[in-house]
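Let's sit down with a protein and look at its sequence and fold side by side. Go ahead whenever you are ready, and we will take it from there.
>
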Amino acid sequence: MKFEIKQKDLLGAINIANRAVSKSTNIQIHELIYFSADKDGLSLTSFDGEISIKTYAKANIIEEGVMAVKADLISNIIRKLPDELVKIELENGKINIKCKRSNFNLISFEYFEKEEIRKPDSKPIQIDNDKLKRSINQTEFATSLDETKLALTGILFELKEGSLNMVALDGYRVALKKLALDYPADFENTEYIIPKRSLLEWSRIVSDDSKTSLYKNDNDLMFISESTTMLCKVIDKNYIDYRNIINDISETSIVLEKRELTSALDRAQVLSDPGRANLIKVSIDEKVMTIMSNSEIGDVKEVIEVEQEGEGLDIAFNAKYMQDGVKACDSEKIKLNFKSSLNPCLIYPTNSSHEGEDFTYLVLPVRLAK
C-alpha cells in the first residue's frame, strides 16, 4: 500500500473518522482507523459498536492496499506535520510516514474484515444540512439522561403527512421541531428513535451548504453527505405519544422579546445553589412579567414589560428548563401560553425566519409549598 496526500486533506478525513472511534474501550478494533486505497480512492473507516463512519479523501494512489492504525496516534502525528505533501507506505507490517523532513515508522495493526458500508438501492429522504443541524440543536438538549428510559435518550424522527417531526422529551419538557419535507412514499407513517450522540456527531461532520441523504438500511439508518457516510443503530423501543402531552388550551398568553427573557433568566440564576434546582417564581399581571428567585444568600427580582392576553397568573419553573426552550426559539420575539399554575407552559417563536419550519417547546411547572 502506498499513497500521497495533502496534510490538510488527510487531517480532515481523520477528524471525521475519529467521530466513530471509542475513547474508552478495551476493544482494540474500536480504537482503530481503517485505511483502504483502491481504484475508488482513499477511504477511512471507523466504528465503535454504535455508529460506523466511512469518509473519502483525495489522494494519489500509487499502490492499492489496506491498513489499520491507532486513531489517536495517527491523528497526533498528522496534526503536527507541516501543511505539505504526506507520503505513506505500508510494507512488511510497518507504516512509514514522510512529510518534508519528518519521518515516522509505526507498527500496523491487523486489518479487521468488517461489513462494507454500502448505499442501499432504495430512494432516500433528502434534507438540507443547515435545516437538519438547526433541528438537532433545537431538540437534543431535551433528551433524557436516564438509561432506564432508553427510548427517551434519543430523538424521535416521525414522518407523517408531508412533515418530519423531530421530538425530544425527558419527563419535564418536550421539544418539537416540525419540518415540511418531501420524502418517498414508503417512508410515510414511519418513525425511528435515533441516539442523540449519533445525530450530534453527524451535525459536527457535515457542512451547512450541502444535503444529507437518509436511507433505511434494515434496522439501521444510513446518513450520506458529500464524501462521508454514517451508519447508526436505531433504538428499538416504543416512544411516548407526545401528541397527548402538547395540548394548547390557554387562558393567558404573553409576547415578549426573547433577548430580554433570556437575560432575565440568566440573572435570576446567579444566586442559586449549584447543587439544587434553579427554581423561579413567575408572576404575570397587567402586562408585566415578574421573575423572582431567592436562596440562602439573597434574592433577585426581574421585571419585563409584555404584551398580555387573558388573566394574571402565578407559576413556578426550573429556570434552566425554561431558558433552554427560550434559547431554542429562532425569533426575536416569543410567545408563552399558560392555562393555569399547575399546567405546562408552551413556548413558540412568533416570527421565525425559516419558512416551512415550526418549533414548539413545553415545560412543566414546579409545585411550590405555600
In short: The mean pLDDT is 93. The helical segments are 7-17, 71-80, 129-137, 196-205, 258-268, 319-328. The longest strand covers residues 173-180.
